[in-house]
Amino acid sequence: MAFQKFVSVLFLQLLLVLLVLDCANASALKLGFYSKTCPRAEAVVTKTTSYFVSRSPSLAAALLRMHFHDCFVRGCDASVLLNSTINNQAEKSSIPNLSLRGFDVIDAAKAAVENICPGVVSCADILTLVARDAVSMINGPYWEVPTGRRDGRVSIALESLTNLPPPFANITQLKANFASKGLNVKDLVVLSGGHTIGISHCSTISTRLYNFTGKGDTDPSLDRNYAANLKQKCKPGDTKTILEMDPGSVKSFDEDYYTVVAKRRGLFQSDAALLNDGETKAYVQLQSTTHGATFAQDFAASMVKMGRIGVLTGKAGEIRKYCALVN
Length: 327
Fold this sequence. Notes:
Elements: H1 2-27, H2 41-55, H3 59-71, H4 103-116, H5 123-136, H6 157-163, H7 171-179, H8 185-192, E1 199-201, H9 202-210, H10 224-233, E2 242-244, H11 256-262, H12 269-272, H13 278-289, H14 295-306
Antiparallel strand pairs: 1-2
């Protein structure tokens, strides 16, 4: 009994130490981190991002998603950018990440920065900046990004499966997942708003449409008319058809996602789940009835907070030369 108590206390102390270290690392980030070592870095990243997003606006959603997938696994350390090796399947190879795209944008931005300041700016910072710039370029909010992140050396495919919230998650699972990253319930509902520019495939919602409880039924939380519309687009077994998560808004960052969710037309079960909690439901209703009165500023604040998850700073990690490879 005494031994079990000792182990429990030791475990709690270890968690406290890890939390303190996390906070210390996050506080080491600062605005203008590269102002002396690479003063043109952020401008070069913005210029590169603009080149790609202006030609393909849908990249904004892809780059925002990539940043989210990076931060929720091992923190914002650019581990999602690493390639698999003979001895290791990296996060890129995990099922949730197989549809990630925009790696060429990150590589181009990194190459442009390396050209003027070799070995100075991390891939983790570049990904964070690119996500911010991409969102702002499609009428989304702009936020200042504290920099100083360093790049991780580890990337494990299985960790994406265990750390990323799945599209079929319920509200209890979502709240627990975000809490484990230091994000609160408001962050959860605010960051879900990023789905306003998101896309998915019929395969992701096939069970929700055709076999929700294993009896050939449809999820009753989905608006009946919208479900009928989705079934017209998504036949059983369809894995290729693309769906907009906020129909008509995929190229413009706005608050309309919340109107869609309020009408029970959220594409994922995790979208619909926002109506199953008092706090998240109230936020959905607030934004849907006020044309997103606070959404832009809320999203900016939650993105800054997300960008601090599990960062490596100081002498931890490294500054990769190529974002897909450890040095």
